Amino acid sequence: MSLLEVKDLQVRVEEREILHGLSLTVNPGQVHAIMGPNGSGKSTLSHVIAGKLGYEVTGGQILFRGEDLLEMEPNERAAKGVFLAFQYPVEIPGVTTWNFLHAALNAQRKARGEDEISSPAFLKKVREVAKSLNIPQDMLKRGVNVGFSGGEKKRNEILQMALFEPAVCILDEMDSGLDIDALRIAADGVNALRSPERAMVVITHYQRLLNYIVPDVVHVMSKGRVVKSGGKELALELEESGYAQFEDAA
Amino acid sequence: MNVVAKTETGRALGDAFAVARDRLPGKGKIADQRRQAFEAYERSGLPHRRIEDWKYTDLRALMREVLPLAPAPDAAALGRAAAAVKLRAIDGVRRLVLVDGAFAPDLSDLGNLEKGLGIRPLREVLDAGDGALSARAFATDISNPMVALNGAMATDGVVIEIADGTVLAQPLHIVHVASGTAPASMFTRSLLRLGRDTNVTLVESYLAGEGAKAYQAHDGLIVAIGDNARLDHVRLVEDAIDAFNISSATISLGAHAHLNTFGLTSGGHVSRYQLTVTCAGEGSKVETNGVNLINGTQHADTTLFMDHAVPHCASREIFRAVVDDRAHSVFQGRIIVRPDAQKTDAKMMTRALLLSDDAEADNKPELEIFADDVTCGHGATTGALDESLLFYMRARGLPEKEAQALLIQAFVGEAIESIASDALREVAIATAQRWLEARA
């Protein structure tokens, strides 16, 4: 069974249809890249998979390990193993990163019928992960993402990804706002999490990110559909010729 | 002057005062003051919405009537009170318990008083005919009808005196417990006097014994903080969900004195807390912080009057309200800077978080500035929880109520953080936590 299966998905925001029949099949161990120009519906897809309000699914299905994802609350999807790394991670003043991560991890474990993780065990785990991502301890004591630089916010997303050990990671424009060094650190973090059981969907506007996170499959999106799929060489082709050729195809 | 026809309930209370008079301690001058105070109350009756200060808290509509005095607690009532007190006991404090309007010596801790600390029940002070102390206990302004009524009817309370230079190691904890099973009123009045160079922490709690129903708690606290003294004050209102709490505190500060006061209201059906703080000595400093956590049909009103009477004083007010269901939160904060009070630094910030479409929060900040060399400001905001934050948190696995709880804790956190004592801050956090868990 495939891990994530998007079938003929149609989505409206207010009166406008953004996705018109999008299909995508992601198997364990694979890294998929979704590329496309602004407004092609890439972020809409990531939001609908995660369960954000304000999107009306008018047709199609999203199955996660064969289960209907659209019937689940966002927190249930997270507990099942769906993770969205946000393009713009929010700042939550007054809620420390420690507290937030501990509460979130325990909520996921509780939803799966697992025992809660104790504070000392949690501390140990977070410290290890933070160290591997070069995240200083004092960042964890601050409000979630409060006063973090763009790179720190993205690293915090990857920290959470490492901590929650999801089955599918959707990375929404992970490269936006990052300089080349920050991008490399973030990409290293993501690569370290690649495994035969885990799949990743990397949404990006630019080919640059794919030099660091090398995909197995590349999809080109235009006007709410996947218009072409291929191997990693497709990304390079796009870099050469741009998206214009697909605008007409869509 | 308007002649107001007496309502049925007004007449009933008039009779109640006549009946109660013999039970009220204090003879001679005190009895006269009580009568005057009652007459002042009777002239206006229960405040209603056409009186500006009571626009949002119309007691005539919400409370309808003042109930007769509660009987003195019997052994069973004291037993229920003891159980309630135990449930909310705070470690390391000196506890002073008032049950149904009477000081309860057996539930209180009057042993081994530290040097410089004097504690006596108000009734004893009045019965002993201590003129100067009694006069202080009844020195409040009777132009406010509910304060006047409290003065007329107060049956007991505690009178606490702290001698110059005393630093109390143990916080004082006044616990107000209602434990009568029939609806009734209790009126208490307490006096706290801090001498020069003293340092005191006072906690006040309002609790209900099991089975206490629809009671009315009326308290009046009068505090004088001497020169160079510091008072930390934490007030927690966890009254029964059908109870009324109409209380006031009148606090004055001497030169270079410091007041840090925090209030949290999560209980009671209708509550009104009238806090009057006067900077009467130069260089004094005031921090006033408050939190309302209310739901259902609760109504909680904090009305603050911050009076800058002299130069070089600073005040800060932070108020946070979290309002769910059809509850109604009111914050009225008035800052007066008198003509002489140059170099005053006064700031007030009030924010309300509405958790439902039917919740209501009224924030009314007012500045009246009569001096020209001052720094004053106020701000007020009202809003809902940020959906983008909630989505982020839910996408990380937190169920909606848990995500809301973390955001609510953060929202009230700034006010709770102001509590100086770590232990008491934890008590306030635990109180807020109980409210959050009850709604989850």
Structure write-up:
Chain A: GO terms for molecular function: ATP binding; ATP hydrolysis activity. Chain A: It comes from Bradyrhizobium macuxiense. Chain A: Keywords: ATP-binding, Nucleotide-binding. Chain A: InterPro entries: AAA+_ATPase, ABC_transporter-like_ATP-bd, ABC_transporter-like_CS, FeS-cluster_ATPase_SufC, P-loop_NTPase. Chain A: This is Fe-S cluster assembly ATP-binding protein. The complex is a heterodimer of chains A (250) and B (440). With 250 residues, chain A is an alpha/beta fold. Chain A has one domain (4-246): P-loop containing nucleotide triphosphate hydrolases (Rossmann fold, 3-Layer(aba) Sandwich). In chain A, 39% of the residues lie in helices and 28% in strands. Chain A has helices at residues 42-50, 74-80, 97-111, 119-132, 137-141, 150-164, 180-192, 209-212, 233-241, 244-249; strands spanning 4-13, 16-26, 31-35, 56-64, 67-68, 82-85, 92-96, 143-144, 168-172, 199-204, 217-222, 225-230. Chain A has a six-stranded mixed β-sheet with strand order 6-9-10-3-11-12, sandwiched between helices. A four-stranded antiparallel β-sheet of chain A has the order 2-1-4-5, covered by helices on one side. In chain A, helix 2 (74-80) packs across helix 3 and helix 6 runs parallel beside helix 7 (180-192). The two termini of chain A are 29 Å apart. With 440 residues, chain B is α/β, with parallel strands linked by helices. Chain B has one domain. Chain B is built from ten helices and 19 strands. The interface between A and B is medium-sized, with 30 and 23 residues.
